[in-house]
Request: fold
Amino acid sequence: MGYSGSLEKMTITAYSDGKFSKQVGKPFSVYINPEKYSQEYSICYNTVRAQGSPGGSPEFNKVGDEKMSFELVFDGTGAVPPPIPGITPYTEDGIKTQIDEFKKLVFSYNGNIHSPNFLKLAWGTMIFKCRLTTLNLTYTLFKPDGTPLRARCNVNFVGYTDEVELAKQANKSSPDLSHLITVKGGDSLPLMCYEVYGSSAYYIQVARINNLTDFRSLKVGTQLLFPPLRIE
Reply:
């Protein structure tokens, strides 16, 4: 079975917020698609035990961060056409303009949010919300005067999920995790606290966290946040 269609370039879009709603600048389209990319998943366990005690089964702690890495190639020889004509023309500075645009988007400090940008990688079926962790450039081809004409760039990203989405994904049977729960008919705050924490005694704290002035009358469809609380 074959396939058809135009060549799609990987794009990297920057945002100034963790909800990915406020775009920064224009998306960056790579000149040459990665030959491959790697995704890393991990599970973290508690392994601390008393000195001299026998080994035992690791206890689950949490699911680790999802990570992605790949290599990009920047080329200023003219042999590789720009991904979008006119976006980044070839200049006398070789690949400097390309790399400066890329670094400004993924690496540079954004004073409005006091950190680098939030990023969304998109290529084919792959969409990855993330933040850059490392960027390593190796220059491989130069003009006679030393101006770089080609470079390989290894980049590593860590997945990013905002707190509300994390709460939605949380296991609602554990009091050690944040939960975002939708009020259903017949629910009461003490009952919901009992289901999350195993005790109804925390309804006053939960009401305060959610700014509820009347916890006795919960509106069906309202989403309430149940954060980790100390269980006596």
Remarks:
- Residues 69 and 156 are 4 Å apart (CA to CA).
- The mean pLDDT is 82.
- The two ends are 62 Å apart (CA to CA).
- Residues 96-106 form the longest helix (11 residues).
